[in-house]
Design goal:
Helix 1 crosses helix 10 and helix 4 packs across helix 5. The chain is built from twelve helices and 17 strands. By secondary structure, it is α+β, with helices and mostly antiparallel strands. Helix content is about 30%, strand content about 25%. Helix 1 links the parallel strand 1 and strand 2. It binds adenosine-5'-diphosphate and magnesium ion.
């Protein structure tokens, strides 16, 4: 009988697990938040992932539960485990990905390099941090942020007035995370996968480019001299130290001095790994399925010298990426196009393109040209 993987969340990450599951003959079932989502093709249930009964009903008869996102509440995760469901990554590891303050605490206790950080619940505490760190800092809401939502560069405590007000109104109290504003040379990401029995697979370190807090391009491998051995050691330490299963992405800053600092962690396939679909022997989506089923992991070698991934953000002014195919696809038949089945909205990730080859400038240009045709 085919193994059955249940994925909570119907976004593009769940969608992109589907072809990998089909190729391996694995059954994939998705619990989608709504009808018509990106992963609708594999949705066997539609419901609220915050409701334990809904999730328990979905998890009946699956071999393992995994995720499209990190927002499933701890009480639901623990309820699944209590009912005997395999949950990968498990609640303990996911808790760290769910809360940026806990993340900073765990990374610090693992002895890994992170930006200077603290927590603040009052404006005067933020003012003190600003005073100690050159007058500028980054404030983050600990939970629920993505694509730069919940991240703000500030030089005055009043810049995040609404976030302080929200803390005051929150019966649970709570804090904001504050970090030094890192003057990075560039951002990098280290993707690995770990299976429960301990095997770890490591893809090449990549460079990621963010625009307005949102990933726009990824270059694999990261060009130039880069501390790839250190990045690998950091990712292994996180995967083992937190007992992560499945794909783990470690977002890194490379400082002007060439040092690495950990920005944040994601415990699922990640935008920085979309290049692997067309650029590596084993894609992150296939690897995630193998890892959560505790199967031997696939090779992570790149297929060509360079792969460039470019996100289609916003997409066409109206309609769908696919509406443009007749005009656009013929421009460069070598660039691979991935559309997420989502209608356009400003800034929304609606798809990506991958270009591969042996000349970086050429690969960059081809990826950007195709991406621009969809914008
Ligand atoms: N301490 C920092 N110093 C400088 N830039 C930062 C810092 N933290 C975040 N950023 C910038 O903001 C982006 C989004 O922040 P991140 O914490 O990764 O949030 P998200 O959960 O939205 O991805 C980062 O990729 C980086 O470009
Ligand atoms: Mg991030």
């Amino acid at each position: 009988m085919s193994p059955v993987v249940g994925v909570i969340g119907g976004g593009q990450l769940a969608r992109m697990m589907v072809p990998a599951a089909i190729a391996l003959g694995i059954e994939i079932r998705v619990l989608a938040e709504q009808e018509g989502m990106s992963a609708a093709i594999a949705a066997t249930a539609v419901g609220d992932y915050r409701d334990l009964d809904t999730v328990l009903a979905f998890a009946r008869d699956v071999d393992v539960i995994t995720f499209d996102h990190e927002h499933v509440p701890q009480k639901v995760l623990k309820g699944l485990v209590k009912a005997g469901v395999e949950v990968r990554p498990g609640p303990g590891a996911l808790a760290v990905a769910q809360d940026k303050v806990l993340m900073r605490e765990k990374l610090t206790s693992l002895g890994l390099p992170v930006p200077a950080w603290g927590t603040v619940s009052r404006k005067k505490e933020l003012r003190a941090f600003l005073g100690d760190h050159g007058g500028r800092a980054v404030v983050k809401t600990p939970r629920g942020g993505y694509d730069g939502k919940g991240v703000k560069v500030v030089d005055d405590a009043g810049d995040v007035r609404e976030w302080f007000t929200a803390l005051d109104e929150d019966a649970n109290g709570g804090v904001l995370l504050v970090e030094e504003l890192v003057d990075f040379r560039r951002e990098l990401a280290q993707l690995v996968a770990r299976r429960p029995s301990g095997e770890i697979a490591v893809w090449p370190l990549v460079e990621t480019v963010q625009e307005g807090g949102v990933c726009s391009e990824v270059i694999a491998p990261a060009p130039g001299n880069v501390a790839s051995a250190q990045a690998e050691a950091i990712a292994r330490a996180v995967a083992e130290g937190l007992g992560v299963t499945g794909v783990l992405a470690v977002e890194l800053f490379e400082t002007q001095q060439g040092e690495l600092l950990v920005n944040e962690l994601a415990m699922r396939p990640h935008n920085s790994g979309h290049w692997t679909i067309d650029g590596a022997v084993t894609s992150q989506f296939e690897q995630h399925l193998r890892a959560v089923l505790d199967l031997p992991l696939g090779d992570t070698d790149p297929l060509r010298d360079w792969t460039v991934m470019a996100n289609v953000l916003g997409g066409p002014e109206s309609g769908w990426m696919t509406d443009r195919y007749a005009d656009v696809l013929g421009t460069d038949g070598g660039v691979k196009v991935h559309a997420y089945g989502k209608p356009s909205r400003p800034g929304r990730k609606v798809g990506h393109v991958n270009a591969v080859g042996d000349d970086l400038d050429d690969v960059l240009e081809r990826a950007r040209a195709m991406r621009d045709l969809f914008r």
